[in-house]
Design goal:
Layout lengths: L1 E2 L2 E2 L11 H45 L2 H9 L3 E17 L4 H7 L1 E16 L8 E4 L2 E6 L3 E17 L1 H6 L5 H15 L3 H22 L4 E6 L1
Parallel strand pairs: 6-8
Antiparallel strand pairs: 1-2, 3-4, 4-7, 5-6
Amino acid sequence: MVSGGKCKNSPCEKPCGGVKLGHVICNIAIMKKLIIAIILVAVVFAAGLFIGWRVNKNAVDKKISSQAILESLRERGFLVTQTNTVNQSVKIAVKQETFWDRLLWGQVITAYGVVEVNSGVDLDKLKEENVKISGDKVLVEISKVEIFNSRLVGDISLENKQGILKRVFESDSGYNQAMTELVKKAEESIASPQQQEAASAKAIQEITRLVGYIVKDKTVEVVIK
């Protein structure tokens, strides 16, 4: 409809001779408003995400307490941090005072075997005072490395010499004595200062890694008390 030289039905009132130009100008204005609206929505959405992230981060930070770290470590129980495989040999001679005692009742056991010795730290023994958080630092105090268990790997090579009467009346294969002595000697062999230092270093490294998974934004220090 035309009224006074203007197009009343067009989005933007322009002279009828410039209807096409009016549409173009009007569409540009609408597009600008639409773009501004999209930008505003995006800004509001991004701000909401940021605020939500901050709230969630603060909540997580509050949950990560020394007690949470302590409970997480305790759940590990005994943490084996080093395994030593020892080729061990022993000789066991049952003491007899005289030549005839040795001849009749004596026993000499010679044995060889491979013993696996596992050592580490019992994290279940940790107490509240062993885990401390100070600013951006977490301090964990652990006990000295100790042996968790030992076991024979494979069979024992065994030679068992017995006196004449012992072989007849008190025959003993010598296996149990040999096994006990092999394990004992293997455990003693890893008790040297060098072995203990290496085992302690591995324990500190492993526990530092575990705590680092829990508190990723803090420095972790593990010491042996």
